[in-house]
Amino acid sequence: MNNFLKITYSICLIFFQISCVKKEIEVVSPASTKNELIELTFSDTSIDYKAIINDLKIDLIVNLPIKLTKIKIKSIKISEKASSNIVLNDEINLDNNSVEFIITAENGDKKIYSFLPKFATEPFKVIKYDSKEISKQNITPTFIHYMPWFESPEFAEFGNSKFGKWGQHWTMNTQNPEIKDGNGKRQIASHYYPLIGPYDNGEPNYCEYASILIKLSGIDGVIIDYPGITTVYDWKLLHEHTLALIPWLQKAGLKYSICYEDAALKNAFEKAIITDKIEEGKRVMKYMDDTFFNNPEYFKLNNKPVLLNFGPQAIKSDQDWQDIFSVTSKGVIFFPLAYHGDYFNLSKSAEGAFAWVDETIDNKFYNYSSKLKFTGGGAMFEFRDFYKIGGWGDGYTTYPNKNGDLLIASLKRAKDAKIDFLQLITWNDWGEGTAMEPSNEYNYLQLSTIQKYLGVTQNENDLALAVKLYQNRKKYKGKEIENKILDQAYYYLISLQTDKARELLNSL
Q1: Confidence of residue 7 (pLDDT cuts 50, 70, 90)
Q2: Phi/psi of residue 220, nearest 5 degrees
Q3: How many other β-carbons are positioned within 10 Å of the β-carbon of residue 415?
Q4: Rounded to whole angstroms, how far apart are CA atoms 172 and 249?
Q5: Is the pLDDT confidence value at 22 over 50?
Q6: What confidence tens digit (pLDDT) does each residue in 114-136 have?
Q7: 26: pLDDT confidence band, cut at 50, 70 and 90?
Q8: What is the pLDDT of residue 116?
Q9: What is the distance between the alpha carbons of residues 256 and 227, in angstroms, rounded to a whole number?
Q10: What distance in Å separates the CA atoms of residue 150 and residue 350, rounded to the nearest whole number?
Q11: Selection from 46-55, 152-161, 403-412 with the highest mean pLDDT
Q12: Which of 56, 49, 95, 54 is closest to 72 using CA atoms?
């Protein structure tokens, strides 16, 4: 081989070797200096360990298990024109001796970083804290209406088989969440997009996330849209998701109430699933009394459970409702939808009424409800449904948010009226565009407005911790140590130790 070929071969070999190394190290450009170790992650078979780089010392966020003997390099970032003596998948023997990471700059300058493995003397222990009540200036009982009907393929029972088993409230008749845009955003039946992406109400991680956000917003609890235990359509799912949420509300120190969809009785009767709407109504009411009404977390007025009703739609006589309520141990304070008590002459069974979308935009309902014993007020950010695009009818009147002024005005209207509780419309009706749950479009705007209205010290930086917790639950699914750290962050959040939760979440 002549000299020219030898030189050419040597140069190619050098570039090949450099190329191989660069594929195993992610470089950062431009770099502040030319011999920096910027990021380092170790891994064993089941757990990742992120390093903290302080000057020339490498530490781990958590100590290594005491019996661990080897770890691998999972990721490493160095300066743009530097090289390292250690690359991806190199094994590090954990023999309590310091390991040196040598980062060499293009001009030959070196920095030597030392890593001394530290081992846990005992497993990470989670300290469980009880929930702490949020102090607020506005003490009117404040709830947010909660829809338990969203379903994802991972947990699907009634998912739409045409659209990857996503539930119908994500798909309606026209949207396919399996389709993603260039940013990974799924196609869903809404003008707006949840900040955490589409989800399943029955997933424990979601219940944890929602309960923390609601608590840190200063809201007292939720009013759950609930069809009872009558088996019709996919409404069994709403029942199961209601039962999944309640323990998380209880742990977070939140209350709850039921908004009963007696349309389930109507639909089941028309499909011949039941033969007697009154008897089925009694069975459902007895179940709610045994399961919900007597719990200390259930919302009560005058020591009686508050029961809202979207309608009525199936039971429309005073005597029939009285018969149904006769099976409860303490009776209920019954709130049909605005004006419906008069429509059906429910003078004995109903003691109040509650505002919904149309009642939030002026004072007509509050003028009407002043004659009632009890009033449930309402406040709304926006109404912009997806029904026509989604193939679910022609839709309803749009109420634009007016840069947030609609919510502020409806909150003030409710505050000036004589109300016994306030219902925020809604937590998560994405199909109707009323969701106050954080979204890509509005982030925490609605909940931040609620915080200011209620006069709490928490702010949107605290709300972001719930999102970070949820995202880390997804990221570290199946990772034992990381999830123990997240468990601790959860207990810090419900006990309002937000600074400690933030520090812990930032450590991951």
Answers
A1: very low
A2: -75, -25
A3: 14
A4: 29
A5: no
A6: 988 888 767 789 999 999 999 99
A7: low
A8: 87
A9: 15
A10: 31
A11: 403-412
A12: 49
Per domain, the residue ranges of the chain are: 3-115, 142-149+189-459, 150-188
Q: Note whether 365 and 355 are within 8 A (CB).
A: yes
Tokens (6 digits) for 180 = 């993603």
**Position 279, amino acid:** E
Q: How confident is the model at residue 33 (pLDDT cuts 50, 70, 90)?
A: low
Instruction: Calculate the alpha carbon distances from 186 to 92, 193, 197, 468 in Å.
Output: 41, 9, 8, 20
- DSSP string for residues in 11-55: HHHHHHHHHHHHHTSEEESS-SSSS-EEEEEEE-SS-EEEEEEET
The pLDDT score that the predictor gives to residue 279 is: 98
Structure tokens at 210: 């929602």
8 Å CB contact between 403 and 458: no
Cβ contact 411:144 at 8 Å = no
d(CA 223, CA 106) in angstroms, rounded, equals 63
Read off φ and ψ for residue 353, nearest 5 degrees.
Answer: -155, 160
Are 310 and 283 spatial neighbours (Cβ–Cβ below 8 Å)? no
The CA-to-CA distance between both ends of the chain, in Å, stands at 55
Both tokens assigned to 351: 């003691």
204 strand-pairing partners: none
- Domain 142-149+189-459 carries which CATH code? 3.20.20.80
User: What DSSP letter does each residue of 434-451 carry, written as one string?
Assistant: ---S-BTTTBTHHHHHHH
d(CA 398, CA 25): 53
Q: Tell me which residue has tokens 């992406």.
A: 197
Q: What are phi and psi of 191, to 5 degrees?
A: -75, -15
Helix (H, G, I), strand (E, B) or coil at 313: coil
- 189, two tokens: 């039946």
CB 49 within 8 A of CB 41: yes
Q: What is the 3-state secondary structure (H, E, C) of 387-427?
A: HHHHCCCCCCCCECCHHHHHHHHHHHHHHHCCCCEEEEECC
Q: What is the CA radius of gyration of the chain?
A: 29
Q: What is the pTM of this model?
A: 0.79
284 contacts: CB under 8 Å, gap ≥ 6: 228, 229, 230, 260, 264, 265
Which residues pair with residue 113 across a beta bridge?
A: 101
Angle at the Cα of 152 from the Cα atoms of 148 and 155, rounded to 5 degrees: 90
Among 358, 342, 346, 351, which residue's Cα sits nearest to residue 304?
351
Q: Cα separation of 230 and 267, whole Å?
A: 10
**Highest mean pLDDT out of 15-29, 221-235, 278-292:** 278-292
Report the alpha-carbon distance of residue 64 to residue 504 in Å, rounded.
17
Where does 187-243 show beta strands of DSSP type E? 221-226
